[in-house]
Design brief:
By secondary structure, this protein is α+β, with helices and mostly antiparallel strands. The protein is built from 32 helices and 23 strands. A hairpin with a 4-residue loop joins strand 16 and strand 17. The longest helix is centred in the middle third of the chain and has 26 residues. Pfam families: Peptidase_M16, Peptidase_M16_C. Belongs to the peptidase M16 family. Keywords: Hydrolase, Metalloprotease, Protease, Signal, Zinc.
């Protein structure tokens, strides 16, 4: 069974005259097609399964063998999600076809029966679908899936979309010319994915899956194979696998499922192909080398030396993958496996928190690409003493294999599992249609059935009733057995290990460590101290937006509440306080990142990290922490019955913080290990350096070096963060399915009970964030591949609520810019796979925003990127965009905001900060209009304001030892190709 995923549901939130709230479209009637299976039939996906059928799905099979599933779903309203799955991925390629499955995915978007060359992206944009999110595809080792989420749909739009998809799948134009055009784009994607990461991935695959097809077939393929592709050779792959009997289509959305089935049949029922179905290749089984010890069958191992990567150790137990009957008994066994793994991972994490020899360790189980059923153990040694870390990890696992868990341990993990499954049932009506569509194709991929949330809960309860320490012990022992054990160790130091040392370490006997078990401990909210005397409510009134209520306490805390039952089982909570990044002086910079990693883990009151875990067992609670430009935030998704305790945790972190040293030490170690990996690729260098340089070398944006981290202390951490937690007004937002009166009383007992807040110092509020002025290109170097580079260009944009409506129009201009850059750098030049332009407009501060263009490319193409970005910016100031360009920009924006405006969280995000800044309420008026309606003249004016007479700030990341190419250098390079 595949898990149904969580998503948002449409709401009937009434905000009169403020927004165009999308409405459910009237149902379309269609004649039931003969291909739909009758209720008395066993649907094709439930064959050989006793899993209860999810009655909301309708299944069918065409005479040509194509299978499908359809269902109605109004989340979000007006959207239909279509998935077309082809049962062929990289494992289906012959040795001379490496990368063809993925190349073919590209070619279907290049040109097809109803879409001319390069027309797919703009056509879907005109239909309101955003390229890359609403319109996309994926190729895996075992399948290729084409994905389309159509917004604002009706029967005509559905028909047109299904027609276009059928043309892509049934009749792509696989010409030599299209192959020559698309191969450079695929090679650009390969280059952007490649380098150190690709090398490590290849060596890992070759080691862990030795002797199997998966070891030699990376999805992206090889440069030689791709360069050798032709229309004929790709068509041969297409003809072999793109057949109706290898195709499954799922359609889920806000129309009649009978209409889905009828439309699908209209465009796919007459799909005829010649010849017989090719048998799927044998993926192979994991096999131990000759002479391996059957009791400890250590096989292939590899030491992968990469000076720019931190240490990472992986070893696994590999068993053959076999097709199973997806029965209730089978799924009970899978849940017992999950229970066994959760028990071990809890112990491993506790050891890491307590100052163990590894930064993290985790055990997982997976059925990988229908090639192996594996149990994988992964950990990161803190030092070069990887043997000690391996011994520690194996000792923890050894105890789980030797001795049954305690009932107390089991109860803790079972409670965690139960709340997850119960919450899925509670939220059944708000699960997104796109996730249902994905669920079906994923179930087909793993050759299992699909089930409703109620079924998952039923199977879990059945497993729980039968689970004993002995049954979990038996499951654990099965997990850590197999035909062969394989391992890889990534290290920056070639002298640290060799293959013989790895094998020796894995063959050594390790004593089980009974001390790994966590002592039984009872922690409850009832035993926690009060934050203070309940606060006095000095104001409680409508906020002026729909059903939103504003509450103010005597200590200055304000709250916005919107209680409704439109999203059952969901409550979104957000707490805003303080000055955000402005709060930090330059000398405090190293403590910013440490705070993001360690502030919450440092505990509160008498609760350390272990106690926080225990107190939230069996609850739906969270504790996200974010540092924004002008504020700090806590956030969580919870539920009605856990809301009071969630608010207590948030308020207690402000009112009685704890300062445990171990989370800070662990955060320092993580920062030190991560720092060396930044220079491995252009993207890593940008992650490390871009904000620092784009903000004119402002120290608070500098990534701390290992020496700077070493100079920090627990005392310094507290000195920086303790006053921050007590400064500035607090705003609490609670939106969703809760009782308003109970929430107000809880707020009085928690946030209302906090001490009066200290004011934010005037010098802090006066700090601004400024984009660096244009000048010489900032050049940084990486130690990755010689053919990898990245380029960034940026213009100052602004920030704050004063011109928020202008920022929405500027978002349209940014989309036009991005579409032109994509056309120039990808479609025409084939120089970059995914160049883009984005607008950053911070709303909590009045400055610091930017319009930023980005691309990964070859070093010689960096000047081309800058020249093209300059050209596009200049042309936008001279000639307004065409009506078609504006439609391609505004339709996806309009549909995106219409879709998200149907959920509680949208209103929370739009209204946050409005207790302090009423402009945020006013900004809601006309939001969708601002994003969806404009004029060429308005775009021309904005372009002149932001791009006119100024060159963008520039940054290039090129390989170490190279100089930044000039335009003439690039021209010579082109002529020599």
């Amino acid at each position: 069974m595949t898990d149904p995923l969580r998503a948002a549901r449409r709401l009937a939130l009434v905000l009169p005259l403020l927004l165009l709230v999308p409405q459910t479209l009237p149902a379309q009637e269609a004649e039931r097609p003969e291909s739909l299976q009758a209720e008395s039939e066993t649907p094709w996906i439930y064959e050989n399964s006793d899993v209860p059928r999810d009655e909301e799905w309708l299944f069918g099979e065409l005479d040509n063998g194509l299978r499908y599933g359809v269902r109605e779903n109004g989340v979000p309203p007006g959207q239909v999600s279509i998935r077309v799955r082809i049962d062929a991925g990289s494992l289906y390629e012959n040795d001379d076809e490496l990368g063809y499955a993925h190349l073919l995915e590209h070619l279907l978007f290049r040109e097809s029966k109803y879409l001319g060359p390069a027309e797919a992206i703009p056509t879907w944009q005109r239909l309101g679908a955003t390229f890359g999110s609403d319109t996309n595809a994926e190729t895996s080792p075992t399948h290729t899936v084409y994905k389309l989420d159509i917004p604002d749909v009706d029967a005509a739009k559905l028909d047109e979309s299904m027609k276009l998809l059928s043309g892509m799948v049934r009749a792509p134009v696989l010409s030599d010319g299209n192959v020559r055009t698309e191969v450079p784009i695929v090679l650009a994607e390969k280059r952007e994915r490649g380098g150190v990461g690709e090398r490590v991935s290849e060596q890992t695959l070759q080691t862990l899956f030795a002797g199997q097809r998966l070891a030699e077939r990376i999805t992206i393929g090889t440069e030689d194979s791709l360069q050798g592709a032709s229309g004929a050779s790709v068509k041969a792959f297409y003809d072999r696998w793109y057949r109706p009997e290898n195709t499954v289509i799922s359609v889920v959305g806000d129309l009649d499922p009978i209409l889905f089935a009828a439309t699908l049949e209209k465009y796919f029922a007459d799909w005829k192909v010649s010849g017989t179905t090719a048998p799927a290749p044998d993926f192979g089984d994991p096999v131990a080398p000759s002479g391996a010890d059957p009791a400890n069958p250590v096989g292939e191992v590899a030491v992968i030396v990469e000076p720019s990567l931190p240490r990472a150790f992986t070893y696994g137990y590999f068993r053959p993958w076999r097709q199973v009957d997806d029965t209730i008994v089978y799924n009970e066994g899978r849940l017992r496996e999950s229970l066994a793994l959760q028990l071990i991972n809890r112990r491993l994490e506790a050891r890491a928190r307590g100052g163990g020899s590894y930064l993290y360790a985790q055990v997982s189980e997976d059925k990988i690409s229908r090639s192996t059923h594996a149990t994988l153990v992964q950990f990161a040694p803190l030092t070069e003493d990887w043997q000690a870390a391996l011994t520690d990890v194996r000792a923890v696992i050894g105890d789980a294999i030797a001795n049954p868990p305690t009932q107390e341990e089991m109860n803790r993990e079972l409670a965690e599992m139960e709340v997850a499954f119960a919450n899925m049932v509670e939220q059944r009506s708000v699960l997104a249609g796109s996730n249902y569509a994905d669920d079906l194709v994923n179930a087909v991929d793993i050759r299992e059935a699909i089930a409703a949330p109620e079924t998952f809960l039923m199977v879990f309860n059945s497993m729980k009733a039968k689970a004993t320490p002995q049954t979990v012990l038996a499951e654990t022992r099965k997990l850590f057995g197999g035909e062969v054990i394989r391992a890889t160790y990534i290290t920056p130091d070639a002298e640290e290990a060799d293959e013989a040392a790895l094998k020796t370490a894995l063959l050594e006997r390790v004593d089980a460590d009974a001390n790994a078990r966590l002592a039984a401990q009872t922690v409850s909210f009832e035993d926690q101290p009060a934050i203070g005397e309940p606060g006095e409510i000095i104001a409680r009134e409508p906020h002026g937006i729909g059903a939103v209520e504003r509450v103010e306490f005597a200590n200055g805390v304000t709250a916005l509440l919107m209680a409704n039952d439109h999203e059952p089982g969901r409550v979104a909570v957000k707490v805003r306080f303080g000055a955000g990044l402005r709060a930090f002086a330059p000398e405090d910079a190293p403590y910013i990142g440490l705070g993001q990693a360690a502030l919450i883990q440092s505990g509160l009151g008498e609760l350390g990290q272990e106690e926080l875990d225990r107190i939230s067992t069996g609850r739906k609670m969270g504790f996200d922490f974010t540092i924004e430009e002008g504020t700090f935030t806590f956030g969580a998704q919870t539920r009605r019955q856990d809301l009071a305790d969630q608010l207590y945790l948030f308020a207690a972190k402000l009112g009685m913080p704890r300062w445990d040293p171990n989370p800070v030490a662990r955060a320092k170690a993580a920062g030190r290990l991560a720092y060396q990996s930044y220079e491995a690729s252009p993207g890593g260098v940008l992650n490390r350096d871009l904000e620092y340089y784009i903000y004119d070398q402002n120290p608070i944006f500098e990534t701390s070096t290992p020496d700077e981290l070493a100079a920090t202390s627990v005392e310094g951490f507290r000195k920086v963060w303790e006053p921050i937690l007590g400064q500035g007004p607090v705003e609490v937002l609670i939106f969703g399915d809760f009782d308003g009166e109970e929430a107000v009383q809880t707020l009085a007992n928690t946030f209302g009970a906090l001490p009066d807040r200290k004011p934010i110092p005037a010098e802090v509020l006066a700090r601004t964030l400024e984009i660096a002025p244009a000048g010489e290109t900032v050049v940084r170097h990486h130690k990755g591949e010689a053919n990898q580079a990245a380029a960034v260009i940026a213009w100052p944009a602004g920030g704050g609520m004063g011109e928020i409506r202008k920022s929405r129009q500027l978002a349209i201009l940014t989309e036009v810019f991005s579409n032109r850059l994509l056309d120039a750098m990808r479609e025409k030049a084939g120089a970059s796979y995914a160049p883009s332009v984005r607008l950053d407009w911070p709303s909590d501060v009045e400055s610091g925003g930017s319009i930023t263009g980005f691309a990964q490319l070859q070093p010689q193409d960096v000047p081309v990127f800058f020249a093209e970005a300059d050209r596009i910016a200049r042309e936008l100031t001279e000639t307004p965009p065409s009506a078609d360009e504006l439609a391609r920009a505004t339709e996806p924006l309009r549909n995106y905001y219409e879709r998200i405006s149907s959920g509680n969280y949208f209103y929370l995000l739009e209204l946050e900060g409005s207790t302090q800044d009423p402009r945020r309420m006013r900004a809601l008026r006309g939001l969708i209009t601002d994003y969806s309606q404009t004029t060429p003249e308005a775009m021309l004016s904005l372009a002149g304001e932001y791009f006119g007479g100024t060159s963008g700030w520039r940054m290039a990341v090129i390989p170490e030892g190279q100089k930044l190419a000039t335009s003439s250098t690039r021209a010579r390079a082109q002529s020599g190709r």
